[in-house]
Amino acid sequence: MLLTISTTAPPATDLGFLLHKHPDRVQEFGQSFGTALVFYPEADEERCTAALMLDVDPVRLARTRGRTSPDFSLGQYVNDRPYAASSLLAVALGDVFRTARAGRCDARPEAAARPLPLTITLPALPCRGGPELARSLFEPLGWRVEAQAVPLDPAFPEWGDSRYVRLVLHGEVRLADALNHLYVLLPVLDDAKHYWIAADEVDKLIRAGEGWLAGHPERALIARRYLGRRRALQRTALARLAELGDEVEETLAPPVEEEAEPQPPGEEPPPVRPLSALRREAVLAALTDVGARSVADLGCGSGALVADLLKRPEFGRIAAMDVSAHALMVARRRLGLDRMPDAQRGRLELFQGALTYTDDRIAGFDAAVLMEVIEHVDPPRLAALERVVLGQARPGHVIVTTPNAEYNVRYEWLTGHRHSDHRFEWSRAEFAVWARAAAERYGYDITFRPVGEPDPEVGPPTQMVIFARAGREQEGVR
């Protein structure tokens, strides 16, 4: 089976640095089911192509088969696995390009961080759902998709098409994101895995889907197929996505009380609100309380809060900034920026930037919002963020939300932080210490508010602080 990745971003041979594989060598990587080879059919300044070829040994594959694999007849030895892209290729890709998938490249860090013009080709891909499914999975991620069904036999067109598709993807996508798209979606398209699916597959899915899976319109199908249609794992994955992503509709179920209050006859219990929605509502309420008319959403992600701000005409000027170009691309698509009326478009500024560097574009606002942002910053860099936002931009009010680490015990599935990119998660006491010190350094008063239903033992799931510049009239904040 074969996968090729091509780029024309000059100098194109930087693809070798990004993949950590030298264009002048053929490199072999042993797998439990065969051998993966990486080589470059073309490599010059204008265009570079890297190929991953997987040579599958059917005997070795049979010996390492998962519990769900058949152990009868010749099906173990005669199948399409040596020829068609599947979970075998996804596993090899994850192993061979492990560092590239993480987005790390010390030699070319700027190229690893930005979108590149990429073309990815898979000549034979099992696709249970046909070309339409391939388009529905890749197009929302910014890819232009060419998916052509492979006929059973070109000499006999009346036999119809096979379940295989020739897939070509074109797009301006960060290489790490492209590799993670493939890692997750190849087994989803095939709707099969060659190994036993254990509970740790949920962690793999959440890590590889960071930044794109929570907002994907087909996330439920992706989770179901990736996790082998195991409903318990699927529910866990969707619950975690609901907690970690602002875009999803599913939610975490609250802790079950031993003696729930009975409902009056004929009345339905109220639906559980997603924590992401409660956060946005709390932030909007705080902005209203302080009388803000101009708002900077710092670390806007995919634009969920921005969409809510645009619905309210009282916010006449809105800025949305994020360090991730991919997140901004998703935000533009989500907000329909190219179709937005001129009057509404004139209220919005959308731009890329980092909160640890001085940026005049975020100055002059009534309020700034850092919603679930600070926990993504390395602790030694928090001082720089404080200086930029509280010391230099100096909005009248700054609203900060962050997870309450004490509440994590209420998530039975959770091990570690709520998100793989969180550098820390603070208790209420730790959050208060940080907020008071920052307020004292830069001349702000502070007010704390809970977000979500507080637990009597561990507090609310999310905590909020409102910084109010000292000497400014406190409109609704006491």
Automatic annotation (TrEMBL):
SUPFAM superfamilies: S-adenosyl-L-methionine-dependent methyltransferases. Residues 297-388 form the Methyltransferase type domain. InterPro entries: 3'-RNA_MeTfrase_Hen1_bac, Hen1, Hen1_N, Hen1_N_sf, Methyltransf_12, SAM-dependent_MTases_sf. Residues 250-261 have a biased composition (Acidic residues). Keywords: Magnesium, Metal-binding, Methyltransferase, RNA-binding, RNA-mediated gene silencing, S-adenosyl-L-methionine, Transferase. The keyword Metal-binding applies. GO terms for biological process: regulatory ncRNA-mediated gene silencing; RNA methylation. Residues 262-273 have a biased composition (Pro residues). Gene3D superfamilies: Hen1, N-terminal domain, Vaccinia Virus protein VP39. Belongs to the methyltransferase superfamily. HEN1 family. This is Small RNA 2'-O-methyltransferase. It comes from Spongiactinospora rosea.
